[in-house]
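Provenance and format

Records in this collection were gathered into a single text stream. Each protein contributes a sequence line and a token line. The two records reproduced below are adjacent in the stream.
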Amino acid sequence: MKGRRGIQGVAAAAIIAAVVTIHAEETLHILPAVRDAQVLVSFEVADGYADDVRDAIASGLRTTFSYDVELRMIVRGWVDRTIATAVIGTSDQYDNLTRRHRLVRTVDGRVAESVVTEDEAVVKQWLTTQTKLPLCDTSLLDPNREYYVRISAHVPHRTSLLGWTTAVVGLTKFTFVP
């Protein structure tokens, strides 16, 4: 009897994970590109800037989105090989007195960019979109091989049915043709 409950629990967890994955494919748009001997990645979390995020920002709470980006080579019959990784952090600190947003973007723990704005559209784009992130040099890639970019987006205030913080995960495949 106890074994059957354990199996049912594992099956329920697998179904919940599948639902989260299906939802993730609808909300995370990834576009890899090869330009000027570099692999560039652009992405957007389409529904990441929800009302609860907007409310948290308006309250003055520092709000951070983080993205784990991986470029992997598909290896048939074996574990896929990681070619390059990057951790992107985008944060907003809203000042209620000046009504300005201080936006900061970090790449692998180092500040890459910062902006001060009063425009909420700029804030939304800053937090949910990354354009042409240089991920690696094409000299690390083998010609005519299949690769994929996998992104795990950690969006504030997104939780599972069990109350756990969840990530929006998506991937896009491509073949490197020099």
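Adjacent record:
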Amino acid sequence: MQPQRTLLIDADDTLWENNIYYDLAINEFVARLAARGVPVESAQETLWQTEQRNIKITGYGSAAFCASLHEVARGLGVTDLEPWITEQEHFICHHPIELMTGVWETLSLLHSKNHLIMLTKGCTDEQLGKLDRSGLAPFFHGTEIVFEKSVETYHALLQKHALVAERTWMIGNSPRSDINPAKAAGLGTVFIPYHTTWQHEIEEFAPNGTTLMLESFEDLARHFG
């Protein structure tokens, strides 16, 4: 008897909207800095470099993101923006969940025929809060919230859950986090594009292995339902 098929499913921008809230905050932050005399390109580059440096220490999520906004604002001497930044952190962390089209119906079908584990990066409390607000928790047999998605992360998950790589698939929207390291770990991969991808997650697809390219989350039902 073959071991059960396991689907590792990314959360942010795969199950529900996420990046749009960060983009809105960044655009408003840059606009507010511009109104105070900071050139747009300079503000964008400073924030990008600050985020890239801090991610290695703070990880992902609204608190980590807004810590970078605070750092940039202080560095530029624009401390009057700090109350606004704190408001953005609260909103991003607690906003109502907007599911991607067909997620509820598709997960309901996949749940009965696969072992489902939600695998996401970020702050544990924040991600569990989103899962709870989404109403999707009953569809998952497990939840894993990790600091980073690396080859080592996937190997550790295979061992922890006694999974067989050849019967395990990683599903997500990020080549850097969901596809390339999972392929390197011997997993099957499914790429579901999101209309906008954070610059940090953009990466060329690794040539090794194969990746199933789908247009929407609903298409999973045809392959794993």
